[in-house]
Amino acid sequence: MSTDIYGVRVVSVSPQELQVRFQVFVVYYDTEVRTYSPVSDDLGFFFHLLWEGASGYCGTHRDGPLSKLVNVHTLGNHAWVDANARRFISGVEHVATRNHPPTDEQWGRLSDFYYERGGAWKDEDLLVQSTYDVRVTDRRWLEPLRVGDAWGTTAFPLNADTWTAGDAPHIPDLERPAVTLRPFTTATGDLKYDHLAQVAFSDDGSYLATASDQGRVWVYDTTDWTEVVHTSAGDVWDAPVTMWVPGEHVLTVKSSGEPGDSGIRPQWAFDVDARREVEIPFQEGHLRSRDGAYRIGPNETGDGSYDLLPTERSPHRHMSHAGHWDPVQCADFAGDGSRLFLAAEENIYVVDPATGEVVDRVADASDRLYSLASNPDGGYVAVGSASRKLGYLSLGKTPPHEICVWRMADKKIVLGRHLKTYVNGLAWSPDGRWLAAALEPTAMGSFNRGRTELVIFPMGPADE
What's the confidence (pLDDT) of residue 1? Predict the structure, then answer.
């Protein structure tokens, strides 16, 4: 017998309103260390409950449409459920919670395991429990359910997508890349210890550029993704910073340098249209807004922050994003320069570059953040992060990353895909049509061996 994690009861069914109310009980505890798995509003979890209700889990022999449409093998495919639960469930509302968290007195009375007996559980009033209204996309998914149905389940919250038709034009289709570029296939020489960590679109979106740790440089024409430049920036650059000259097709590469060292030299520059190296004024900082009004570089505050560097349109502004040690891992400006997104190890900070002040924050965005890109208006942010699926997948000693898309209006992840790679870098095209990702193999025999791929995702996830 499997150990149930939750107990489920159908409280009400409203076919006309396409809604069912579930009461969900926590029935598995570790009373010694006082822990349990709380319920979330994840669509994937409630998709499992709808399927179980259609498959006789409540002790009946009902055979609902959902159980005929989705077999048990498909149900066990977490990636499929994450991507498709939204086709069956349009929303979940958390209505009420009881006994969360339990008091000391309640912990003293709780047992480790509870099993359904005759549609009920022992000590129901004591159990941690929540009530949810679940809205479905078709009344057929409610046909098998009856008020009072109850069963135990081993289902658990997943990470289902929640994007809507209104989001679709603005977020990438992570299932169907438009093209996969393999820069190192045209490289010669020793590729040991070489990889790509940054990708950058020119301001008009005509070109996509990248540079490797050993100074190799590639530029692609975004009209057909052909390679138009493959050259060397000369010396080996330490964590190369790739930056376009504002409004021009001139690419620069320099070393990342140390905090407080904004004037990093030497600098290599290349005119892509003329196909030749050029000498130009030094391009300050690690990152700039698309119009060149703002630039940032690491400071020496001791909290891992960045300063807004002086430009013709903006004074030097000191930034301390967290007020304590929370080093910035990656950053990006919204296309219109109205917001600066700073991703630290676990938190995302939203900065107004006109003042240098933090105006919003996403706390505990991930166990670890690695790369970030904003869409043109800052309404959505793509993040390469530690996989949220660590809790229910065996990922081995080199767990890969996940790309998640955040809708910043409500600070929710609306789309996510678990990958088999690391996400070294992300860039959103200025016209909002493409998300470029530098994806690195995780295997030791492939990692940092000239195997990085540039994957180009188009906008608009398919709804069929």
Answer: 46
Average pLDDT for 292-307 = 85
Amino acid at 269: A
Whole-number pLDDT of residue 145: 95
**Is the per-residue pLDDT at 265 higher than 70?**
no
d(CA 412, CA 94) in angstroms, rounded, equals 15
Query: Which is it for strands 250-254 and 241-244: parallel, antiparallel or unpaired?
Result: antiparallel
pLDDT (average), residues 186-197 = 89
Contact predicate 425/440, CB 8 Å = no
Other beta carbons within 10 angstroms of residue 166's beta carbon come to: 8
Identify whether the C-beta of residue 48 lies closer than 8 Å to the C-beta of residue 155.
yes
| C-alpha–C-alpha distance, residues 340 and 450, integer Å | 31
* Burial bucket for residue 427 (CB in 10 Å: 0-12, 13-18, 19+): buried
As a residue count, the chain comes to 464
Distance CA 318, CA 213 (A): 30
Is the Cα dihedral 388, 462, 412, 83 positive or negative? negative
Beta-ladder partners of 120: 117
* Pairwise CA distance, residues 315 & 292, whole Å: 13
* Rounded Cα gap, residues 163 and 461, in angstroms: 9
Mean pLDDT in residue range 432-459: 91
Which residues are CB-contacts of 41 (< 8 A; sequence separation ≥ 6)?
A: 92, 93, 94, 132
Q: Which residue has the tokens 């438009």?
A: 178
Give CA–CA dist 57/150, Å, rounded: 8
Q: For residues 194 and 117, is the Cβ–Cβ distance under 8 A?
A: no
CA distance 318 to 194: 34
Residue 219 has pLDDT above 60, yes or no: yes
Average pLDDT of the residues in 104-132? 96
CB 269 within 8 A of CB 249: no
Mean pLDDT across the chain: 92
d(CA 151, CA 290) in angstroms, rounded, equals 55
pLDDT of 444: 74
Distance of alpha carbon 455 from alpha carbon 403, whole angstroms: 12
Q: Which two tokens stand for residue 236?
A: 């080996």
CA gap 316, 332 in Å, rounded: 18
* Mean pLDDT confidence for 57-68: 83
CA distances from 406 to 383, 389, 413 (A): 8, 17, 4
Name the residue type at position 263. G
